[in-house]
Amino acid sequence: MSDGIPLTQDRITLPVLNKMKREKNIISALSIYDACHARLFDRAGGEVIIVGDSANMVINGEPSTKSMTMDGMIQHARAVRNGTRRLFAVGDMPLGSYEPSNQVAIENSARFMREADCNAVKIETNKAYLERIEAVANFCPVVMHIGLNPNKAEMLGGYKTYGKTMEGVKELCRVALDGALAGACMILLESVTEEVSQKIRDIVDIPVLGIAAGRKLDGQLLISYDLLGLYEWPGNKKPKHFIAYQAGEKGLTVADLTFNAYSWYTKAVKEKEGEFPGEENVHFLPRKTPKELEEREEILDYLKILK
């Protein structure tokens, strides 16, 4: 296995990530849940680990993220920090850990900071939770997760692509702007049309990462178990943004192959424009019917004048 980058390199901080945005250097991010994968992604040259409540599905085998607990998240986040001192680690606030009140949100954010040495926390956000962003941002860095909110998907109409109607586009852009003003340090867009994602990237000063949110953003996120082909999607129906590393080498250990997969992903995101995400991984504004084409033009006109 290649040595990769030195593990003694300086830690990734918010100023480093903000500088990467300004200089248009793409941020490579993965959802990772343990020390060994964190160490390998560090060596592969990544910058950000989101310790996602997706661990409930890909590791625990549960059908959704909803039953993940704060104790479970702290355990995974602590393991990730044990694997890397360099990478920017984000603890994902599970369902029920921030919704009740600002005080509850701050107390659980403090657990990620104190018990797992995270750099930031992540909160699934829509316009109803902007005050949580402001409250937590006064205590620690907070990543705002907008578009598809997996924990609230059933409440909000299921798993779908966001930013396909004028009403939806305006709400996404407004929440992004208001969240940035409230103090969010970063935005994660999930399952958002590419045209809208790229506009959000342009109108905020903080880094914008995407998962199933199109190309040419400040960074890309994948779930590590998807990249490694370890998670079996129900009915084997893989999402549009899905990509799995294909190994052709022989005589390599699992660690070698995992390192190679993480290295390939980092290079595909950073250096080879169009390799990942490619056009086949992107959601676009609908344009199949005359009505969809008409609304698409209205949305594009709106995005042009939005500042």
Question: Which key features would you list for this structure?
Answer:
single chain; 307 residues; 11 helices; globular; alpha/beta; TIM Barrel; 40% helix
Provide a descriptive summary of the structure in words.
- The radius of gyration is 19 Å and the shape is globular.
- 40% of the residues lie in helices and 13% in strands.
- The protein has a single domain (14-305), classed as TIM Barrel (Alpha-Beta Barrel).
- The model has no long low-confidence stretch (mean pLDDT 91).
- Strands 1-2-3-4-5-6-7-8 form an 8-stranded parallel beta barrel, surrounded by 7 helices.
- It has helices at residues 14-22, 35-43, 55-58, 70-83, 102-116, 130-137, 166-182, 194-203, 224-227, 254-270, 290-305; strands spanning 27-31, 48-51, 88-92, 120-124, 142-147, 186-190, 208-211, 219-223.
Number of helices: 11
Mean pLDDT score: 91
Could you give the order of the helices and strands?
HEHEHHEHEHEHEHEEHHH
CATH topology: TIM Barrel
Give the overall shape, derived from the CA principal axes: globular
SS strand fraction: 5-15%
Uncertain runs are none
Number of domains: 1
Helix content percent band: 40-55%
Structural class comes to alpha/beta
Distance between the termini: 47 Å
What is the name of the CATH class? Alpha Beta
Oligomer: single chain
Biggest sheet architecture: 8 strands, parallel, barrel
